[in-house]
Amino acid sequence: MRNKFDQQLALLNEELTAMGALCEKAIAGAAKALVEADIGLAKSVIEMDAQIDRKERDIEGLCLRLLLQQQPVARDLRTISSALKMITDMERIGDQAADICEITLVADLKTAQSKIHIGDMARATIKMVSESVEAFVHRDLSLAYAVISYDDEVDELFNKVKGEIIELIQRDGKSGEYAADLLMIAKYFERIGDHAVNIAEWVDFSITGKHADPAKMDEEADET
Predict the structure, then answer these.
(1) Which of 105, 175, 210, 220 is geometrically suited to a Cys-Cys bond with 145, CB 3.0 to 4.6 A?
(2) Residue 9 is part of which domain span?
């Protein structure tokens, strides 16, 4: 019985990794579509959101079967309940990547100077999503804490983008709508970072039974 349960938990890890990879692909695609004004790629990312939604439903079904059939307790129960929370955040990441592409389809952002730092935000959030899922699969608490701490980098990049947008408006008072679109896109990337933090915090809970302790996070960061 335990052997079968372990096999199902391994499948859960595989499915979560696959869903995380889809999210990474969606974020990267959204950023590339924005920077290159690639309408075809933007549409494909929007379609990819449906794949992420299906993956969420598949993983949710697997988790419910594990809960009903195996009746796990203690660490195993935390692992499965944390996975259910994580896929909600990953589904929202897919939604936000699609939202970025919806703006790309209708807004003329081809000459955006701020896209440089928005691209940096995309790379930072891809890193956070990837490492948060990896932390869950490998039960790596220090990596989960690193993801939570790395959110400060995304917040700093967001502030840089806001500064660039303010400069843009000051140079050209007619660029208000254009600037608003850029700010909304940057905000979506910031939210993606927040969802990655949520995932990392559920990793912490699945391992320790407690939610992230900021003091402990600082100790872990000093050791790495």
Answers:
(1) 220
(2) 2-223
